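User: Reviewer 2 asked us to show a designed sequence for the structure in our supplementary figure. I'm pasting the structure tokens here. Could you produce the per-position amino acids so we can include them in the response letter?
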């Protein structure tokens, strides 16, 4: 596995791969890798000739007072894991390499970014779309892989790629969970044992919502209220949002008719955790996205 830290070397390498007709798969991450990341890497490995993963904790997607400095990092372990998983290239630029001077260009997706995490974390998605656009221009992949745990991020990036004619296939991959249902996240490392137990309530509340839909409840407000009550009953939790929206465009819904996204963000101790499920009427819930 080749480790590349500069933009020009990465671009040269990708140009050579493209010249020889290789299809490049790309998995961007912020590191501290877990089985969720590994599932993306395995899928990308299966689908492509060449596989590039990146590790870059992107400062521009963290707001003031958020956890940029304390975000967990372990480059040595991540490097071994990427090697074991069959990555051909690991791209690990520094912040100075990615943002060497005052950048004045921002990539911004309207609409989709105004709700859910976009509403609670102003500027977050501009940071995400700008860095992913830069990474796409550096790695020049044919296909890029994103987790549906970050469902809104997946929609925003898909929209950016489409609107800017990037000609990159954006693949959404199912949420990988611990055996007890907790969605894997690098931020789970922040949790103390008792908080880890409380964090399980996120998954349990999604299950409660799925059960309600199965029983014929289609009023989003009724389900949101119950989900909030389930989460609120656990110590150490503080709800940021619990929201049922249209699964395609994230618009608010007055009734669940077809596919709806139930998304939540909850502080458990210091950690801000997100999770989601797709609620489907007359369908197999949670299997197509974000299960
Ligand atoms: P991050 O390192 O948290 O920025 O995540 C990098 C990529 O891994 C993103 O596309 C995430 O959506 C994805 N990812 C993170 N956690 C999971 C998970 N539990 N299951 C599937 N994908 C995940």
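Assistant: Here is a per-position design you can include in the supplement:
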């Amino acid at each position: 596995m080749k480790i590349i830290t500069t933009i020009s070397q990465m671009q040269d390498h990708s140009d050579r791969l493209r010249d020889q007709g290789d299809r490049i798969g790309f998995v961007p991450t912020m590191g501290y890798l877990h089985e969720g990341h590994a599932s993306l890497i395995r899928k990308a490995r299966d689908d492509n000739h060449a596989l590039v993963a990146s590790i870059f904790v992107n400062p521009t997607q963290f707001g003031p007072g958020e956890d940029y400095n304390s975000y967990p990092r372990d480059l040595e372990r991540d490097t071994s894991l990427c090697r074991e998983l069959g990555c051909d290239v690991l791209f690990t630029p520094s912040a100075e390499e990615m943002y060497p001077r005052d950048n004045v260009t921002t990539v911004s997706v309207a609409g989709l970014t105004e709700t859910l995490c976009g509403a609670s974390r102003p500027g977050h998605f501009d940071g995400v779309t700008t860095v992913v656009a830069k990474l796409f221009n550096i790695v020049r992949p044919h296909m890029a892989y994103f987790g549906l745990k970050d469902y809104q991020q997946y929609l925003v990036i898909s929209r950016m790629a489409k609107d800017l004619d990037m000609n990159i296939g954006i693949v959404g991959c199912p949420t990988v969970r611990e055996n007890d249902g907790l969605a894997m996240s690098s931020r789970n490392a922040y949790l103390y044992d008792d908080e880890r137990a409380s964090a399980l309530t996120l998954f349990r509340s999604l299950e409660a919502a799925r059960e309600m839909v199965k029983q014929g409840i289609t009023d989003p407000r009724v389900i949101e209220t119950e989900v909030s009550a389930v989460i609120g009953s656990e110590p150490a939790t503080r709800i940021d949002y619990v929201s049922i929206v249209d699964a395609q465009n994230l618009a608010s819904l007055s009734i669940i008719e077809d596919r709806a996204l139930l998304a939540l963000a909850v502080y458990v101790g210091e950690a801000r955790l997100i999770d989601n499920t797709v609620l489907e009427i007359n369908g197999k819930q949670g299997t197509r996205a974000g299960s």
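For the response letter, you might also mention the following. The first strand starts at residue 2 and ends at 4. Residues 29-30, 36-37, 39-40, 146-147, 149-150, 173, 175-176, 183-186 surround adenosine monophosphate (CB under 6 Å).
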